[in-house]
Amino acid sequence: MMHLSIFAPQEVRTLQVGRNWHEQASDFVHHDLPKVAFILIFGFILQRITLFFVRRMRRMADRQVGNSQRASQLRTMSSVLRATAYTAIGFYVLLQILPIFDIDLKPLLASAGVVGLGISFGAQSIFKDMLNGIFILLEDQFNVGDSVKMAGLTGTVEDMSLRCTILRDGDGTQNIIPNSQITTVQNLSRDYSVASLHVSVDASENPDKVMELLGQLAMEVRKDTAFAQVTIEDPKVLGVDKINGSEVLYLVNTKVRANQKDGVLRELRRRILLGFEKNQIRLGIPSSAVIVNAQDPTLPSAPTTVLGGGD
Prior knowledge:
The protein is α+β, with helices and mostly antiparallel strands. It has helices at residues 9-63, 68-97, 105-119, 124-139, 207-223, 261-278; strands spanning 147-150, 153-160, 164-168, 174-178, 185-187, 192-202, 236-244, 247-257.
């Protein structure tokens, strides 16, 4: 027997669409999906390699106990390497995956060129940021972990890239500074710092006695076990630095390790107050201060004397 099957045109088109969709899905699974998986795996491997070197550089920085500058350099390079490598890997993966989905890159690149030409004037600051970031790294102006003053702000460099620098100030505020705005850098963490203290003493005190006492107190801080590894040289009492009316200023300098002067100055001030009180040395009073000897209102008022003229 002969069986005749008659299909409507709409059913035929539906069967063809279903067959084509099945063929496309099968082709994608057998050919394109392995390519996508390989590209993603390859990108993941590159990311893990980058992360390996970044962590290795940070471990090397942690082992640089006696060389803080080298440790800061390693942390800085690890941050820049991570940011640059992740950007390059992401861009490479995107360029490799888009053609697999039949997305032509030529129109996109051409459009990007036209759009880039239009925004090139507005992107000058980004170029300046990256160019200045390169010079900061090449000249080793500062590193991650350094205490610096830049762009009118003071704090610790928390992270940096070719485009911007992240600065954490004393109250915990995070400041993101574009590198193009960094024109002058004051690095407080290089080599050493000088802890300078002006001591105000009354002009009636013997200068030689004051200078000798200041030298003894500063040397006590130098020999203290808490500051023995902080101070680099013996303190120096430079003598009378300024005379302001009845106030005399003495200058005491102590060379300490970089960014370690605050603790030394606090301890020196404390010892000076105790030492001056023990030796009965009066602190100076600024000439701008006005002292008024007011009468105690609780005391009885002085009797009023009336002078009368004789006849």
